[in-house]
Amino acid sequence: MILHHSTSKIGRVNLPAILPRTLALPILIMVFLIHRLAFSLDVILFPQLKKVSIKKPLFIVGLPRSGTTTAHRLMASHTELYTSMPLWELLFAPALCQKYLIWGLYRADAAIGRPATKAVNWVQAKLAAKLDDIHPTGLTDPEEDYLALLPFDGCFLRVLMFPLAKSTWALGDFSSLPQAKRQKLLTAYRGLVQRHLVFRGEDKRLLSKNPSFTTWVNDLAKTFPDSDFVGMHRDLEQVVPSQLSSVNSGLQIFGYSAKDPRIVKKFVTLLKLYEHAIKEYTSNLGSRMLPLDFKAIASAPENTVVALYQHFQLPKRNNLDATRLSDLLAETKAYKSKHSYALSDFGLEVQDLRAQAKSPLLNNAEA
Questions:
Q1: pLDDT above 90 coverage of the chain, percent
Q2: How distant, in Å, are the alpha carbons of 157, 186, 197 from that of 52?
Q3: Nearest to 242 by CA among 159, 130, 339, 143
Q4: The model's pTM
Q5: Dist. CA 57–CA 260, nearest whole Å
Q6: What angle do CA 332, 337, 339 make, to 5 degrees?
Q7: Which residues have CB under 8 Å from 276's CB, separation 6+?
Q8: In Å, how far are 55, 126, 174, 219 from 225, measured between CA atoms?
Q9: Distance CA 275, CA 280 (A)
Q10: Other Cβ atoms closer than 10 A to 77
């Protein structure tokens, strides 16, 4: 692998960046403990949770930066059929009692003219403006539900704060985790889905989009026997620099850089693993896995939607959901990304992506 960047500067301790990490960690731990307490409270308040059935979930996995978000939002617009966890639930209300509490506060705020809602929307607009060219999102938008696994230490987003830790990259290759750890996370995830369905409607089907679940597919297929999967693909030459560029600002907050050769190497290995996994699932899962390519969804998203509905034999949309889809298709076709990146930005050349990944993700990582 060609890595042109010197590690001397990258390896130095960035003292100003230690402060965000020092402040963030205890706050996050406190929030996660509150979430875990709320989960325990759910067991007391809602004993029927264990009996909630999860019918025909659809998981969108695959390489990141390959159109997974576009596919997710197009399908999520079929609100009569599917439900996805919005960002506000994932961050602030993964537990059912928290969902009802925030919904009650929202209704109370609406009764007095929505001052809190207006303040939240203003803050959200300011923060979202910085991410629109990379990953546009909002509190009410469907988002990657692996975020709700943060209190269970099962979310790969921890890579931003601990990009050199072995435990972080172990999450990247789910099948490498001990069986007990995998089962714990699968049980936690199933519980999160059941809570969401009780809140949104038990007649709905879960629609989940998580590139980080790409190595979870075999376990998800067993946990949810009637589940289906969409596997998104894009050339590694575009995926690798796009992914590294998209996480760089987050890494920098905590004193790291996506140009660090150690981090670059780990991401390249992980993304090669994802590419290999999608090919394997396409062969092994048969009709339960529909492979889709980035070029197809970018150039003709309406054809991709047709392919999805035909392959999984999905029911037709009602008029309102058909209008939602039409509007989204128009937005998708008009969208022009301003996100720029190149392999050379990260000390890579095309041949660095050709060889099969051989070294485990855990090599050369801190404990």
A1: 77
A2: 28, 16, 8
A3: 339
A4: 0.90
A5: 38
A6: 150
A7: 356, 357
A8: 9, 42, 19, 10
A9: 9
A10: 21
CB 277 within 8 A of CB 264: no
**Is 157:210 a contact under the CB 8 Å cutoff?**
no
Tokens of 336: 């022009």
Q: Kindly give the interhelix angle for 68-76 and 301-311, rounded to the nearest 10 degrees.
A: 70
Q: Which H/E stretch holds residue 47?
A: none
Provide the token pair at 21.
């990490």
d(CA 99, CA 105): 10
Query: Is 142 strand, coil or helix?
Result: strand
User: Structure tokens of 260?
Assistant: 């660090």
Q: Which domains does the chain have, with CATH numbers?
A: 17-353 (3.40.50.300)
Segment 43-55, tens digit of pLDDT: 999 999 989 999 9
Q: Identify whether the C-beta of residue 67 lies closer than 8 Å to the C-beta of residue 234.
A: yes
Residue with structure tokens 């830790």? Answer: 165
The two three-digit tokens of residue 286, written as one number: 């048969």
